Amino acid sequence: MPPIPKAELHLHIEGTLEPELAFALAARNSVELPYLSEAELRAAYSFSDLQSFLDLYYALMAVLRTEDDFADLADAYLARARAQGVRHAEIFFDPQAHTARGLEIGTVIEGLTRALDAAEERHGISTRLIMCFLRDESAESALATFEAARPYLDRIAAVGLDSAEVGNPPSKFREVYARAREAGLKCVAHAGEEGPPAYIWEALDLLGVDRVDHGVRCMEDDALVARLAAERTPLTLCPLSNVRLRVIDKLADHPLPAMLDAGLLVTVNSDDPAYFGGYADDNFTGVRDALGLDDETLRTLARNSFHASFLDEETRAKYL
Ligand code: ADE
Ligand code: ZN
User: Fold this and answer.
1) pTM (2 decimals)?
2) CA 226 / ligand 2 centre spacing (Å)
């Protein structure tokens, strides 16, 4: 059976950097990697929590230097995504992780949009770009990043919030989210991955997010679940990521079935697939097998992904 058509709504483009491409870009840009081989790099993909992953994720970005690098990275992801049934992808990028290394924000955005603009024709995938702020950087840095991106806002659909969650609550980023909304952008934020349910409340009430990324920890707060269900706020779950970053012990423990039972609008996504052992359909088949989901439930998850997307009403309707 071909993979079920789906939208991917939680995907960090830097998290699609496979070891093969990392070594190819390192050679192209004369960047020395502290690993002798792809196998040795892959062997380092054993994480104890979010921070232990982020340390490697940021370090490996050193190989991304030019517009071509970002275009090649995105094109490689889109080819893999299509093979996994992805028809629409809303893609995160972390500009501050690149500008901190001396790159221009325009290099990153021009490179990514070159690949995204060609995606419909080359891969049959429609795309949106979501610019994330690093929550472990300052609110001022997020504001400066937003202003640096102003000339490119026509290419950006939404802003997001990622990186080390605990100790960096959504409330820190109220001002930049207000500015983004004023500029007509949608808003999403990682919340309730490692952080407490209170961070999800803040993302809703203080940032006015249209979707919550992860949000798994909402299940610890009945009033929050009721609110998310009543407002049909989408949650972009990433099951394989949750296991690899030890949010849960094993896929069979994932609260996805309980979340569906609670009436939550959940979607299944891949987060950082090069690091977590699977792309979009690998996450679908992973939860199917571990949780015994039937075909109707898988169709619901796929339908939810389009429903929760930022596609216009008419295009979305084609998939529902
Ligand atoms: N950046 C890349 N992947 C992330 C994740 N799962 N959580 C927070 N920040 C991230
Ligand atoms: Zn993420």
Assistant:
1) 0.98
2) 24
